[in-house]
Design brief:
Low-confidence stretches: 90-107, 370-377, 689-704
Number of strands: 20
Largest sheet: 5 strands, antiparallel
Strand content: 15-25%
Structural class: alpha+beta
């Protein structure tokens, strides 16, 4: 850049490193116009003028005119001439013209005026040029920055090209490696072809030697390959290879062969069925999808297996099974109808294979049903104490192990519900044709009922004998007692008898009357009046209390009676007297000469049937009470808590009489110190007894 004249008014150096770019040196306000003018001059290659461009100078805006003129040189370089000048305002011109006459003419004044105007014009052009140059400087700076970015992109492209070159080098190496691998694969393929040829030869020989009819079909159901056995069974010839199997009539009877093959190919499933040839021979036809190594379906495979012998054997097995089922059902029905329990176990495991309902009922053990008995483990037997029976002690185990035959062996056994039972057990082994033990059968009877019946018979016989003996003794005693009563009556009438002696006679007569009453009551047990009558319970109780008056008065016993009802029923007075006599006598013995006896009579209802009305009688004492273990047996015959002083018949007789009158008797007792005592509760219905009471001995005989 070259400058002429003073351009400091339009251009100035920027701070920092010196830069001679005219656009960088343009003053503020000049750069844009200068750059635009320069660009236009370059483009049009013609001078371009710009006027009145305001430029900041010393803090003031000054008008500048400038002109950019392209310069042509002998070289190819382009040069521009930028001329600046201050723009002269019209007001200044007028002032100058107004003041012109006042100016003194000087020598050479016209030339100086022209120079001044030219200078102003040049200054304006110079200012415009400055603005244009400033704009051009900015353009060049942007271009430089773009070039810098382009340079960086070129460097990046160069690096990418270098990387691409390296990748190409790597690809070349990989290509060489791939070429080597292809060479290896080629060798392996050659070996595989060799192996495939051998495999094909082996497959051909296998299909030729196998004794299974096999046909391979393509997706269009054309025959691809067959085995020699298939040619015989289906009636194929070598020229049938390649023909659709639907165009061939095989020797087997399969009407829907085409549909079955199509279904196998479409659904990729295996179909199997039993077919027969024209001669009635049975075969198993199995149709499978033909799959390639890539698991692609390309047809189907038919195989025919001779099952004629198996079919015949299966039919024989089915008939034998039906026969066995029939025989088993017969056996189960026989076992179900048998009155005893039956159990069958296999040898040597001892696992149950058959039981009947009676066995489960007797042993109270839920055996599985006959169809599920195979899932039952070996049955185990326990003693009443819970100990397991040893194998040598259980009859079935002995029969399974040694073949022993056991007959009617009595065994104490603990049932499934925890109750003991006495069993009569018999067992025997079951042997096969060779005499080997294959199972054992066990039968069992519950002897509990029979034992109880025998015990009842013995007790009944004892009761009957006791009753007959008591009746005989009472009858024999009654006659002398009547004679003695008459003697005492006559003795009491003797006037010579003293008062002291007469008193003793009266006491003896009262005791004799009491004894006579007891014998009559004993006879009433064995022979009662034939018809029931109205009985007032209160009167019966009073008569019994009168009978035991001496015993009550001899000790410190207080009697409390409470009669809320007359207590009238239909019954037998002697039997009622016997009931309350036994209860009151037991209460007096429990008191031991000191205590309280309470008698309470009231109208009540049957607790078991509230609609039934009757009379309830309470006989209570505050004696020592009855322990619970004895309380459960007090109504049993011959059971007594008095040791050798009791017969064990009083409460049993009372219970029988109350039941005979369609009532019931209950007992509550406590042995707790300070609160001990016993209370008997008797309920009797208010009904009319229609039937005649049976003779006691006859009833005992009937029970026996």
């Amino acid at each position: 850049m070259d400058t002429w004249a003073f351009v400091g008014l339009y251009l100035e150096l920027a701070p920092g490193r010196a830069n001679l770019n005219v656009l960088k040196m343009a003053r503020e306000g000049l750069l844009f116009d200068l750059q635009a003018t320069i660009n236009k001059a370059r483009k049009e290659d013609a001078p371009v003028r710009k006027e009145n461009v305001e430029v900041e100078r010393n803090g003031e805006l000054k008008g500048v005119n400038f002109e950019v003129i392209p310069l042509k040189t002998s070289t190819k370089e382009h040069h521009l001439l930028i001329m600046f000048e201050d723009a002269t305002s019209p007001r200044r011109s007028e002032s100058a013209e107004t003041m012109a006459p006042e100016v003194k003419p000087v020598k050479g004044g016209g030339k100086q005026e022209r120079s001044t105007r030219q200078s102003i014009q040049l200054k304006q052009e110079l200012a415009a040029t400055k603005r244009y140059l400033h704009s051009l400087v900015e353009d060049k700076e942007a271009s430089n920055e773009e070039l810098q970015a382009a340079n960086e992109e070129i460097l990046s492209s160069n690096e990418e090209l270098q990387s691409t070159n390296e990748e190409l080098q790597t690809a070349k190496e990989e290509l060489e490696s791939t070429n080597e691998e292809l060479h290896t694969v080629n060798e392996e393929l050659h070996n595989r072809n060799f192996e495939l040829t051998h495999a094909n030869n082996d497959l051909v020989n296998l299909l030729s030697s196998v004794n299974i009819a096999m046909v391979m079909l393509g997706p269009d159901l054309r025959i691809r390959s067959v085995t020699p056995q298939a040619e015989k069974l289906l009636g194929l010839i070598p020229t049938d290879i390649g023909r659709p199997i639907t165009n061939i009539r095989p020797n087997i009877d399969v009407p829907d062969l085409e549909q079955m093959i199509a279904a196998v190919i479409n659904t990729v499933t295996v179909r199997e069925r039993e077919v027969r040839d024209r001669g009635g021979h049975w075969y198993s036809l199995r149709t499978l999808p033909y799959k390639t190594v890539e698991n692609v379906i390309e047809g189907a495979v038919l195989t025919l297996v001779d099952i004629n012998v198996l079919k015949n054997n299966l039919e024989e097995i089915r008939q034998s099974r039906d026969q066995l089922i029939t025989e088993r059902r017969k056996l189960e029905e026989v076992l179900r109808q048998m009155p005893c329990g039956v159990m069958i176990s296999e040898a040597p495991s001892g696992r149950l294979i058959l039981t009947n309902k009676q066995a489960g009922d007797i042993l109270r053990h839920p055996f599985p049903a006959a169809a599920e008995i195979e899932h039952c483990d070996q049955y185990t037997a326990f003693r009443p104490g819970g100990q397991l029976y040893a194998p040598e002690e259980w009859p079935m185990a002995r029969s399974l192990a040694t073949g022993e035959i056991v007959t009617d062996e009595e065994i104490e056994y603990l049932r499934g519900d925890g109750s003991p039972v006495i069993l009569s057990v018999s067992s025997a082994p079951i042997r096969d044709r060779d005499g080997r033990i294959i199972a054992a059968v066990l039968t069992l009877f519950d002897l509990t009922h029979r034992k109880g019946t025998e015990e009842v018979l013995r007790s009944t016989e004892k009761l009957a004998a006791t009753g007959r003996l008591a009746a005989s003794l009472a009858h024999e005693i009654n006659s002398p007692l009547e004679s003695v009563t008459n003697v005492f009556y006559l003795l009491n009438q003797d006037p010579s008898l003293g008062d002291k002696a007469r008193q003793y006679v009266n006491v003896a007569s009262a005791e004799l009357e009491r004894m006579t009453h007891m014998t009559k009551n004993m006879l009433s047990l064995y022979r009662e009046s034939p018809f029931p009558v109205d009985v007032k319970i209160c009167e019966v109780l009073d008569s019994v209390l009168e009978l035991y008056g001496p015993t009550i008065q001899s000790g410190k016993i207080s009697v409390a009676t409470r009669y809320d009802s007359a207590g009238e029923i239909q019954g037998f007075p002697g039997e009622m007297r016997q009931v309350f006599s036994n209860l009151i006598a037991n209460a007096l013995e429990a008191l031991g000469g000191e205590g309280t006896l309470k008698l309470h009579v009231l109208a009540s209802r049957d607790l078991r049937n509230p609609k039934t009305r009757g009379v309830r009688v309470f006989v209570a004492d505050n004696g020592p009470g009855i322990p619970p273990e004895r309380r459960r047996k007090i109504f049993e015959p011959f059971f007594t808590t008095k040791g050798e002083n009791g017969t064990g018949l009083g409460l049993w007789v009372a219970h029988e009489i109350v039941c005979k009158h369609r009532g019931y008797i209950r007992v509550r007792s406590s042995t707790q110190p300070g609160r001990s005592g016993t209370c008997f509760s008797i309920f009797l219905q208010n009904h009319i007894m229609q039937a005649k009471p049976d003779d006691t001995a006859a009833r005992l005989d009937k029970i026996a």
